[in-house]
Amino acid sequence: MGYFIGIDIGTSGTKTVLFDTKGNTIASNTVEYDMYQPEIGWAEQEPEDWWKATCESINNVIRRSGIKAEEIKGIGLSGQMHGAVLLDKEGNVLRSAIIWCDQRSSAECEEITDIIGPKQLIEIAANPALTGFTAPKVMWVKKHQPEIFEKIAHILLPKDYIRYKLTGEFATEVSDASGTLLLNIKERKWSKEIVERLGLDMAWLPEVYESHIVSGKVSKKAAELTGLKEGTPVVGGGGDQAAGAVGNGIVKKGIVSSTIGTSGVVFAYTDKVTIDPKGRVHTFCHAIPNTWHVMGVTQGAGLSLKWFRDNFGFEEKTLGMLTDTDPYVYMDKEAEQAEPGCGGLVYLPYLMGERTPHLDPYAKGVFFGLTAKHRRHEVIRSILEGVVFSLRDCLEIIEDMGIPVEEVRASGGGGRSRLWRQIQADVFKKDIVTINSAEGPALGVAILAGVGTGIYNSVPEACEAIIKRINVQHPDEKVSGVYEKNYRLYTQLYPALKDLYGRD
């Protein structure tokens, strides 16, 4: 029997999972690392931390599984999108990576829009210039750190830096490259027009592959560090959202995923380029040839709950440590004690600005309606509800674009919470489905590796064989009525507060 490895370079840690050819999880390991915020709204990580975590997690998985390295037939890479990893001509990292949730580049977004033109930008890149994307980050370095900019020889995305360390190849694939603002989305290749008009160099950009294509093989040095066999194929892989969608079977019309990780994403498949003219949702290449996807993104989904845990969750963390239980399990139990709607307490999850639908890097988090009557469990539940309200914003835009939504599949860390899934069912007024694997992006890129190495003929064929529905939660009509009232209030709060957030 053969095996595949999926590696997901996330914001909080790198997760390596070993699967058999039927998609069963054989072994899994996650190694965490830090995110740094030198200033308010900034977010950076060290690429070397990703590589150390990758090496450690691969070694752990191989050791725990007891299999031989030569039994691993292929590797798929997934990771946080939009980060800017800048290398010099020797392949050395020039500065900390500016990652997806960094908000410093709003002026550069305006500059890019002026240089390319708003209509032309949408026509080519299918998206407006947003602070989350890679190009504005590089332009920020160009303006503020010219001594670094002049040394750039390679621009990589986070997972593609790991590919470089594994294989020595400078390569990417269409789904992750879509989030740079430098890709022609319709043609699935770099836009020479955008790159050169921004004063960048086409030679800095890696070769673009379709997501299932083998992009390199494990080098001798990487094999020594990871325990992998030299020559093991590494496929293109996918940005975390496209990879997670493959891992959830979002490979045909009508099936949509709702993912609650650090960020929150509503993701829909489409077989044609479908663009929101207002740029509120993103249109990117999917990890399947000749297909695309539309996704709405809320910046502070799981991040909001993590923020509460880290700053106010001492009891849950202590209890979790003593009982070897995830602290979020205790927070879930607390939230269950609160009534739906939390007595009018509404949370806006804009801790890192917002993307869908407001495109505002200056937006801030808000608890509205807080009274002396409210208690801790209601505050926690209001966070869960506010995140789902932000996901409903995304879902409604996608439906308004004419994309069918027949089934919503829950995934990500938040998807493991039965309470959070039920809140989604009640707020969306739709059935929420879970599948037989919770590995998401790691499974998705393992599936891509299976296709790339010939085990399966296509991604849809692989998903049909591997992914099964196992649970459905239905909306409660009475609770949906409570949430409808709070959601309408939620939608009024951002317009009321927008001018008070400040712009400096």
TrEMBL record:
The active site is at D240. Residues 3-247 form the Carbohydrate kinase FGGY N-terminal domain. Substrate binds at M81, H82. InterPro entries: ATPase_NBD (IPR043129), Carb_kinase_FGGY (IPR000577), Carb_kinase_FGGY_CS (IPR018483), FGGY_C (IPR018485), FGGY_Carb_Kinase (IPR050406), FGGY_N (IPR018484), Xylulokinase (IPR006000). Coiled coil: none annotated. Keywords: ATP-binding, Carbohydrate metabolism, Kinase, Nucleotide-binding, Transferase, Xylose metabolism. It catalyses: D-xylulose + ATP = D-xylulose 5-phosphate + ADP + H(+). One of its GO terms (molecular function) is ATP binding. Catalyzes the phosphorylation of D-xylulose to D-xylulose 5-phosphate. This is Xylulose kinase. It comes from Caldanaerobius fijiensis DSM 17918.
